[in-house]
């Protein structure tokens, strides 16, 4: 039995919880889901992939579910057949509690005038300019009035309803703020958001290569960051100190809310926004060819891919002709095409063979210990083939120094990491491919450690914020030499120690 | 219209998402839910509370839902009417993907022998000894074999199924490990858990009062911590280095997994476990009376409360006569009774009046700035009246120094915080009550800042790990003197700076 058959047999006739679970409110099917699945198949074909290959076979339904889950704020609205404000009022309505204000003296507290702040609510939203998820730390403050308070978890739930849409940071802050003001009717509401937007792989390649190596803590480094704020009522009054108190309490929790950074423009926030969207998609096709990017023969046109994304947006209950969304399908396809399948192999391409011997020993990144060279913290951004969502982090490569063959310089290794990352991937395979590529030119022994954050682990139903994944591949001398392995791992942990916990 | 009527009117006839949402798999009702709700009403009455008062009216259904949600790992089993191993196999079955091993050379990678680790999966479980939730950071490593890998999110999902039960750390690690071994059939699995169990309020009072003041980062300080590990296959082999590699990768992510701390006994893990469970609950009643704890007349006996908790355990699909669960109802009631309603008021009790004048100015905790005294980082643990789950953190109290009345010493303020914390509470009210109590003896001006972590924000469907809540109450001179307010907040932030970000 071939491997493919074996895998098929494993799945045949089985209950598949990935497909039937995590359903929010609706049945698993429906015409909108079918439309989205077909659209994702078009995208996979446009990427030069076989959408029927193992690993991609269920990607269309996974992606459709992730999109629906990620925009369920819309779906709640659509499902409920009620007005939008009504829905939020429903969330908070059952959770008002009478709390007396102060019973004597002048002051503010309890159910009247005392500041209440919920800090560090982790949210995920989708950028309306490019359909990529962005990460949010949301802070909400309000001043109760009328001797009543609202259940604390409701502030988080309302924020989540507005995050789960195609959004833009300032509008998100404004919408959460207005919805809470209208539903709770307090003396004032203030919403502060810290938002992080992932960058292009091409941009990532150019940024500071000396990223801190701890992916779960530094995961937002190298992302575009913006802070936005929205306020109503007493928070808007210049002479009141409520706004100052709110921001002081945010500082206490380590939020470092940088007001000077507020108001990052949409162009600098979403770097894809700065793309000129061509009148015709033929331009895009021509540009890609001019840029020399090699596709396996695309079986579908870029126009079809752009149309497919527009149909996804429509299926999510959004209007693709809304001003902010007009260029979105083009931008998303542009992002995706960074991960299009290439049939060339970097090893056969002669690239690495040319790169060796060019090593300069003055390179500060190289640790020479017992002839082991370590190149640490090579950043990467790949696309998870199961969910079409990015995973990103750092690669550490250790290899035995070979007097004859010399070393590979860091930028060549970085280019190689970029090459293998820029396609639909799984972390285990990416780790193996990098190891094999290095081993193919430097035969003695190679060890690769890859540490990554998977957006699919947080932006879908899983929501395991802070989790990170590490994989190891070991070839040649490293697989028998435990001391060498330990030395390389120690080299990585030294960098950790230098960066600090 | 009275305030109560107004609150009632707000809720009447409304859709209540707290009650109808967050339902996992089942309908909202069912006989088990009704049994649990009745049992919670018995507990509320045993605490001397009016279960019909606003704020508590929906507590029975909230608590029942939280228990069901927190033990849904059982429910999945019960619902599915399938064997236990079968269920976990269903979770992973749809998520196997073929991944080639290395195509040449000696080594381990990809679908064969390369270590795969998912770190820092945040989970919550319920302690089987006392029914209180405990917090978990779960790390899973496995060595793929047979040229296939499993979807990364499945490791987290399987861990969650076993966490969502009445558990004990070592058994939890063993069960996750065995379930993954049996369903994935890799070369080996290793599961490492870091667990934190909340302490008693009475114990909390005695621990180091100089806790770091950042609740969201230090929230686990002062909790009982234990680390456990469970391994199968190649991780158990002494000569293999897989186990070392796994723990090294955990150190990279800052886990500081302390193997020397492994194997904390169940008695030191759950402090309630060290209670002698009396043969008869009459003993408990007598002990409580001997200890001089003043209850408002309990309308239900302690025996009824213990029986009510046993009925909750039964409704969750557990056997209350299972060895580990026999003393659990008694221990949970013992914990709850820390929060029983008292009709005395600490202000009328003369306690604070006796405490003033006893201040020694050598107390290092007092910052005297413009006559403002600051007592910072007074720890507390209260019980959320909406969910019967703890919220805990620190209180900062600032008050104007009064030459005539002198100061209140820190231990008296701590006792007061403890007094107001040890009942069914909401954070806004607790903040107000502390401010009022201090103001009643030191009239010039009082400001209270309370920073807390609410377990109800993470252990139910909300799962906002890392969020924290801050409230402010301001009385007298502080409400008009913005400079004084700012000085006090600055005193708090100075402590932050000293502790470090």
UniProtKB/TrEMBL annotation, chains A, B:
<keyword id="KW-0378">Hydrolase</keyword>
<dbReference type="Pfam" id="PF01227">
    <property type="entry name" value="GTP_cyclohydroI"/>
</dbReference>
<dbReference type="InterPro" id="IPR001474">
    <property type="entry name" value="GTP_CycHdrlase_I"/>
</dbReference>
<dbReference type="InterPro" id="IPR020602">
    <property type="entry name" value="GTP_CycHdrlase_I_dom"/>
</dbReference>
<dbReference type="GO" id="GO:0046654">
    <property type="term" value="P:tetrahydrofolate biosynthetic process"/>
</dbReference>
<comment type="pathway">
    <text>Cofactor biosynthesis; 7,8-dihydroneopterin triphosphate biosynthesis; 7,8-dihydroneopterin triphosphate from GTP: step 1/1.</text>
</comment>
<dbReference type="GO" id="GO:0005525">
    <property type="term" value="F:GTP binding"/>
</dbReference>
<feature type="compositionally biased region" description="Basic and acidic residues">
    <location>
        <begin position="1"/>
        <end position="17"/>
    </location>
</feature>
<dbReference type="GO" id="GO:0005737">
    <property type="term" value="C:cytoplasm"/>
</dbReference>
<feature type="domain" description="GTP cyclohydrolase I">
    <location>
        <begin position="307"/>
        <end position="492"/>
    </location>
</feature>
<dbReference type="InterPro" id="IPR043133">
    <property type="entry name" value="GTP-CH-I_C/QueF"/>
</dbReference>
<dbReference type="InterPro" id="IPR043134">
    <property type="entry name" value="GTP-CH-I_N"/>
</dbReference>
<dbReference type="GO" id="GO:0003934">
    <property type="term" value="F:GTP cyclohydrolase I activity"/>
</dbReference>
<feature type="region of interest" description="Disordered">
    <location>
        <begin position="1"/>
        <end position="33"/>
    </location>
</feature>
<protein>
    <recommendedName>
        <fullName>GTP cyclohydrolase 1</fullName>
        <ecNumber>3.5.4.16</ecNumber>
    </recommendedName>
</protein>
<feature type="domain" description="GTP cyclohydrolase I">
    <location>
        <begin position="36"/>
        <end position="198"/>
    </location>
</feature>
<dbReference type="GO" id="GO:0008270">
    <property type="term" value="F:zinc ion binding"/>
</dbReference>
<comment type="similarity">
    <text>Belongs to the GTP cyclohydrolase I family.</text>
</comment>
<dbReference type="GO" id="GO:0006729">
    <property type="term" value="P:tetrahydrobiopterin biosynthetic process"/>
</dbReference>
């Amino acid at each position: 039995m071939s491997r493919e058959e074996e895998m098929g047999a494993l799945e045949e006739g089985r209950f598949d919880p990935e497909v039937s679970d995590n359903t929010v409110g609706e049945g698993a099917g429906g015409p909108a889901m079918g439309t989205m699945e077909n659209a994702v198949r078009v995208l996979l074909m446009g990427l030069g992939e076989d959408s029927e290959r193992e690993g991609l076979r269920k990607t269309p339904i996974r992606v459709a579910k992730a999109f629906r889950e990620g925009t369920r704020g819309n779906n709640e609205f659509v499902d409920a057949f009620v007005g939008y404000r009504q829905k939020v009022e429903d969330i908070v309505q059952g959770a008002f509690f009478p709390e007396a204000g102060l019973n004597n003296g002048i002051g503010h507290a309890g159910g009247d005038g005392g500041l209440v702040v919920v800090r560090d609510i982790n949210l995920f939203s989708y950028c309306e300019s490019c359909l990529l998820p962005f990460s949010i730390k949301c802070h909400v403050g309000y001043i109760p009035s009328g001797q009543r308070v609202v259940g604390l978890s409701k502030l988080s739930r309302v924020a989540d309803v507005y995050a789960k849409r195609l959004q833009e940071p300032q509008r998100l802050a404004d919408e959460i703020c207005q919805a809470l003001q209208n539903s709770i009717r307090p003396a004032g509401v203030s919403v502060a958001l810290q938002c992080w937007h992932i960058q292009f792989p091409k941009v990532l390649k150019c940024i500071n290569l000396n990223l801190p190596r701890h992916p779960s803590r530094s995961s937002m480094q190298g992302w575009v960051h913006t802070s936005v704020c929205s306020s109503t009522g007493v928070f808007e009054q210049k002479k009141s100190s409520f706004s100052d108190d709110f921001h002081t309490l945010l500082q206490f929790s380590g939020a470092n809310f940088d007001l000077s950074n507020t108001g990052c423009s949409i162009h600098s926030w979403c770097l894809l926004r700065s793309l000129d969207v061509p009148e015709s998609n033929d331009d895009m096709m021509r540009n890609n060819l001019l840029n020399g990017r090699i596709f396996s023969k695309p079986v579908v046109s870029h126009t079809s891919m752009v149309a497919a994304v527009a149909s996804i947006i429509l299926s999510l209950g959004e209007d693709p002709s809304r001003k902010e969304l007009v260029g979105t399908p083009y931008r998303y396809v542009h992002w995706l095409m960074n991960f299009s399948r290439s049939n060339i192999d970097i090893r056969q391409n002669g690239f690495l063979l040319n790169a060796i011997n060019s090593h300069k020993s003055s390179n500060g990144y190289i640790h020479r210990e017992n002839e082991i060279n370590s190149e640490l913290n090579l950043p990467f951004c790949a696309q998870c083939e199961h969910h079409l969502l990015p995973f990103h982090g750092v690669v550490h490569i250790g290899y035995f120094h070979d007097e004859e063959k010399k070393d590979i310089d860091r930028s060549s290794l970085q280019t190689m990491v970029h090459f293998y990352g820029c396609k639909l991937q799984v972390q285990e395979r990416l780790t193996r491919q990098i190891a094999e590529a290095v081993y193919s030119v430097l035969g003695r022994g190679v060890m690769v450690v890859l540490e990554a954050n998977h957006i699919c682990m947080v932006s879908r139903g899983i929501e395991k914020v802070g989790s990170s994944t590490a994989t190891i591949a070991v070839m040649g001398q490293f697989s028998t030499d435990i001391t060498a392995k330990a030395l390389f791992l120690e080299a990585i942990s030294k960098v950790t120690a230098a960066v600090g916990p």
